[in-house]
Automatic annotation (TrEMBL):
GO terms for cellular component: plasma membrane. One of its GO terms (biological process) is L-leucine transport. The lineage of its organism: Bacteria, Thermotogati, Synergistota, Synergistia, Synergistales. It comes from Acetomicrobium hydrogeniformans ATCC BAA-1850. Its main location: membrane. InterPro entries: Brnchd-chn_aa_trnsp_Livcs. It is found in: Cell membrane. The chain crosses the membrane at residues 39-58, 70-89, 109-128. This is Branched-chain amino acid transport protein. It is a multi-pass membrane protein.
Length: 158
């Protein structure tokens, strides 16, 4: 049986391998030839991982919310929405995309706690409630405006 973490490790190692190829370009006399296909696939994979509806909708909303202080909002969003994910990819590329290699530096307990926190954030703490709330707002609330919101949300989560 193959678990989702094995697919994630394969995917991350592919990205890390190609990022390492790009980073080594020009630094070694015996340099590997960077395949154009690998660069395109890695570029699209990174784009798909980091660009979502929030990156399309949230910046204009921030700009309108901050008004004349939009530069501060742009810098904050740039650091948190671009800088931190890019830093994460760069760090993981140093560990060949392996979460185990990365987390083992902090010890076994740290690796277990961090891995558990990541899995919980991906699923039950962030993604599932967000999906349930979106489903309610888009599919239930327009047709049943006076319905108690807990009924469809509990039904969705069951």
């Amino acid at each position: 049986m193959i678990y989702w973490t094995q697919y994630a490790d394969i995917y991350n190692s592919f990205i890390a391998e190609n990022l390492n190829k790009v980073a080594r370009r020009g630094l070694s006399a015996k340099m590997e030839r960077i395949n154009t296909r690998d660069v395109i696939v890695t570029g699209f994979a990174l784009f798909a991982m980091f660009f979502g509806a929030g990156n399309l909708i949230f910046p204009p909303y921030l700009g309108s919310l901050f008004g004349t202080k939009w530069v501060a909002a742009m810098l904050g969003f740039g650091i948190t929405g671009i800088g931190l994910p890019l830093l994460g990819v760069m760090v993981m590329s140093q560990y060949d995309g392996s979460f185990e290699k990365f987390a083992d530096k902090g010890g076994k307990l740290f690796a277990i706690l961090l891995g558990s926190l990541v899995v919980l954030c991906i699923g039950p703490l962030l993604a599932i409630p967000r999906t349930g709330a979106t489903t309610f707002e888009v599919a239930v609330k327009p047709f049943f405006p006076n319905m108690n919101p807990y009924i469809p949300i509990i039904g969705f989560l069951l």
